Amino acid sequence: MTTQQLIEQIQQKQSFLCVGLDVDLAKIPSFLLLEEDPIFSFNKAIIDATHDLAVAYKPNIAFFEAYGIKGWQALKKTIEYINTNYPELFTIADAKRGDIGNTASMYAKAFFEDMAFDSVTVAPYMGKDSVEPFLAFNNKHTILLALTSNEGAFDFQTKEVNRKPLYEQVIETSQKYKGAENLMYVVGATKAEYFKEIRRVAPNSFLLVPGIGAQGGNLQDVCKYGLNENVGLLINSSRGIIYASNKEDFAVKAREEAIKIQQEMAELLKNKHD
To answer: Given this model, what pLDDT does residue 175 score?
Structure first.
């Protein structure tokens, strides 16, 4: 998917919502456990209920890997279901891969070619030769971890190196990589006060923003400094949507929560243009 196609979908839906698929069999409705593939059944219901409100879906790969081959099969079926039935949706493999050379190329091949994801999250700690193999794929996007929403982010990401925070140097340096036009960045919603500086460094890049809702991030605070001309944000909500109910009405309740977020987004976009 091209960046322009993503922008057009955001404009059409008046939404920049990304739904995170973090499927825990201990949390999904118990009646689904009787299904042949409970993970896929859960994902399918959530996707069908929210596809017109969201512009992206983000399976967290660890939540599929944890169930071995059955988890991988469910992941494969989930991405194929989205690509076949809702090809306009942007897909994110939240894999946080980070290795160099041929290994990075194989990770990229796995998610971009075999799984046919539009994007994948990548850790930048090993530098450009851990990132550029992902950027070599046409119309595929690499989402670099820049400033994450967890408490431990302060251990390294905000530390100053040569009078600049490390996260800022990551963004600046990565924009010189070959294929950097296909870079996006992960910036946690719980770090809303940093968005103004990030937009100075990366004014045009899309930012994937986890941490809204259950983790305490505030959508209005993020949008105040994070929105750009093309919106430039993908706001992820996982638990707040997919676990809105653990009963038979789980998909209905998921839709209700997605509607609340989409309506707030539409209002923020309207105010931005007024």
So the answer is: 95
Residue tagged active-site, from 44, 70, 96, 253 = 96
Does this model's pTM top 0.90? yes
Catalytic: 96?
A: yes
Output the pLDDT for position 149: 84
Task: Decide: residue 192, CB within 10 A, 0-12 exposed, 13-18 middle, 19+ buried.
Answer: buried
Question: What averages of pLDDT result for each successive group of 10 residues across the chain (274 residues)?
Answer: 96 97 97 97 98 98 97 98 98 96 96 98 96 96 94 92 92 96 92 87 95 72 91 95 96 97 95 71
Question: What is the C-alpha to C-alpha distance for residues 238 and 229, in angstroms, rounded to an integer?
Answer: 26
